[in-house]
Design a protein that fits this description.
6-stranded mixed β-sheet, globular, alpha+beta, about 35% helix, about 625 residues, disordered N terminus, single chain
Length: about 625
């Protein structure tokens, strides 16, 4: 049965371009009696076929048409998958009662007749260069017979060689994944070293570039990581100092840049890391009584100002602008609208905008953005050869940097196009920062001490049980043991933070080692609640909290992305179905919270669709 004008994947356009450039047709076979290998899988995947253990199909690709011979069951599976519409294709579908090699050979013969009619030579397979060899080597094609062969043409050998070279690179996804895994492992080693120093008072200030580079190398020895502190991010010729004296005018460094590269794949990734959050956690002074009465503070504590808070805010906000530029560049590349020099134009436009210009001030600066694209592992040669390759086979990398008086801010991200948009190759957090010794760490210790002294209360309704367990002045009774979880934020720069959540009868305490504690007392500071997929049996749900407006109530996360203009903060707990957090909410916390929300007239809404910021954050952390 021939079915014309069916919907195959739009990715076959890459192979069609190859056919047009080399004036040939491409013949692929996948199945139990056909050649196998990564390159074969990569080629057949480009026309919408996902090879599996039961896949039996033959495809012929020409400059303007794709012909496919497939079984009925496999064709049904293909139709049910997400495939963009494409025209000028023909599929020969074998009836369920007749899937013999004879039938398939007849269908393939028809396909080869089409190639002969349009006077194109056929490049067969990925391990053979001549069609007659393929016909004798593949049992699937033996019934076609030599009389069906198109006439030989001199460009077949050259086209076959070029095809094999391209498919070898096009099948590099496994190499790419291995390289990304090594970079992520190296990066985790770097972050662990800073985490370890941050736990010991005074140790963060004594870190050096050599220590951090050595730790990253130990985590993944095939990668090379370059770390520059403070002012040396811009001027590497200067003398090396530790964190405590690597900043401007020998002051404490507020940031560092790190760039990791995998030699085998050419993958590289870079981030700017911050050695301060720029704000101290907020210690609430209200008092919430067991009957729900809230006593406002008689005197509001004056939280000490974080050292160099304004400088940290400036550095962090400008860096977040670079992250936004990189995302816009990737989106335009995925949409096919990115010009050769447009990345730099996007950066200049952002820096000239009102948001960034207020942070730049009158100080001179130098900035640049560039995009590299090429075949994996081939460097400049790959960039030269990439014109003949489908866009889906190419590795892209965007690098954005800004040099100011405090040093260099740097962001670099490799990505690939997947047909639906763009996808990060190396999954690293865009923004990482640690608490600076002083006000940040002292306030965090005070808040943590008040939170962690409470034990889970088995009977929250019993006054004696509450007395034995202890009660927090604002959050009241602790309902269960602390739970490791992910906090999702409405921020493209810090979409998710891993930490520990404590569920109290009157609120939530979330503590991140790098950012410090964040308290959300429901009776004082909650405006609305949205629940998504909390009753589901699969996937990840979310419990979203929109805080009430208050200038002082955000803790260390306030600075991210813009503490000066933000008056409300929406955050969410990611709740994987059947997880410890899911069970704790369902069985313990929610009955208490539901009564509190009703009593305080806090609106609760069940969302049918995942909130946009939750969906984006989950996509980036999965």
């Amino acid at each position: 049965t021939a079915r014309p004008s069916v919907a195959l994947s739009s990715m076959e356009n890459g192979l069609a371009r190859f056919c047009a450039a080399n004036r040939c047709a491409l013949l692929f076979a996948v199945g139990s009696d056909a050649p196998d290998g990564e390159a074969a899988a990569a080629a057949i995947a480009l026309i919408g076929v996902k090879p599996g253990h039961d896949t039996e199909c033959v495809a012929l690709v020409t400059p303007d048409r794709v012909l496919l011979c497939s079984s009925e069951s496999h064709w049904a599976a293909m139709k049910n998958s997400r495939m963009p519409a494409s025209t000028h294709n023909t599929v020969f579908v074998a009836p369920a009662s007749d899937t013999t090699a004879t039938w398939r050979a007849q269908a393939v013969g028809r396909m080869l007749e089409y190639a002969a009619a349009i006077d194109l030579p056929v490049v067969a397979g990925l391990s053979t260069k001549c069609l007659d060899v393929a016909l004798s080597a593949w049992p699937l094609l033996r019934g076609v017979g030599p009389g069906r062969l198109p006439p030989p043409m001199p460009q077949v050998e050259a086209a076959a060689s070029a095809l094999l070279a391209l498919l070898d690179r096009g099948a590099a996804s496994n190499r790419l994944a291995r390289g990304a895994s090594l970079l992520e492992r190296s990066w985790e080693g770097l972050l662990r070293a800073i985490d370890s120093a941050a736990r010991r008072e005074g140790s963060l200030s004594s870190l050096t570039e050599a220590q951090l580079e050595r730790t990253a190398a130990d985590a993944a020895d095939s990668t090379a990581t370059t770390v520059r502190l403070g002012i040396r991010t811009r001027d590497e010729s200067g003398k090396r100092y530790a964190v405590h004296s690597a900043g401007k005018d020998r002051a404490h460094a507020l940031h560092l840049t790190a760039r990791a590269t995998d030699a085998q794949t050419g993958l590289s990734v870079a981030r700017t890391l911050f050695l301060s959050n720029g704000a101290a956690p907020h210690h609430w002074q209200h008092r919430v009584f067991p009957d729900g009465e809230v006593l406002p503070p008689l005197v509001e504590d004056e939280v000490g100002e974080v050292e160099c808070a304004a400088r940290t805010a400036r550095l962090m906000r400008l860096y977040c602008t670079l992250v936004a530029v990189a995302r816009e560049v990737a989106e335009r590349a995925a949409g096919g609208t990115l010009g050769p020099e447009e990345a730099d134009s996007i950066l200049r436009a952002r820096l000239a905008g009102e948001d960034a210009s207020q942070w730049l001030g009158e100080q001179p600066y130098d900035a640049g953005a560039s995009v590299w694209r090429g075949l994996v592992g081939d460097g400049e040669q790959g960039a030269a050869d990439s014109q003949a390759a489908p866009a889906e086979w190419l590795l892209h990398s965007v690098r954005v940097q800004l040099d100011i008086d405090e040093g260099r801010l740097l962001f670099e991200q490799p990505f690939v196009l997947d047909g639906d948009g763009w996808r990060e190759v190396v999954r690293l957090p865009p923004l990482s920062c640690w608490m600076l010794d002083g006000v940040e760490t002292s306030e965090a210790r005070t808040i943590r001490a008040a939170v962690t002294t409470n034990a889970p209360c088995p009977l929250p309704s019993c006054a004696l049980s509450r007395l034995h367990a202890g009660e927090h002045a604002q959050l009241q009774t602790l309902l269960c043991e602390p739970i490791e979880c992910t906090l999702l934020l409405d921020s493209s720069w810090l979409p998710a933070v891993r930490g520990e959540a404590r569920l109290f009868a009157g609120g939530i305490a979330f503590d991140s080692e790098r950012h410090g504690p964040l308290l959300l007392p429901f009776r004082i500071h909650l405006a609305a609640v949205t629940a998504f997929n909390l009753g589901g049996s699969e996937g990840t749900g979310a419990l979203c909290f929109r805080q009430a407006e208050a200038w002082h109530a955000y803790g260390p996360l306030a600075l991210l992305p813009d503490h000066s203009g933000m008056t409300t903060l929406t955050l969410a707990l990611a709740v994987p179905c059947r997880s410890t957090l899911h069970r704790a909410l369902e069985e313990t916390a929610w009955p208490h919270w539901a009564r509190l929300f009703a009593e305080c007239d806090i609106p609760v809404r069940a969302a049918r669709q995942c909130p946009a910021f939750v969906e984006e954050a989950l996509r980036r952390v999965d």
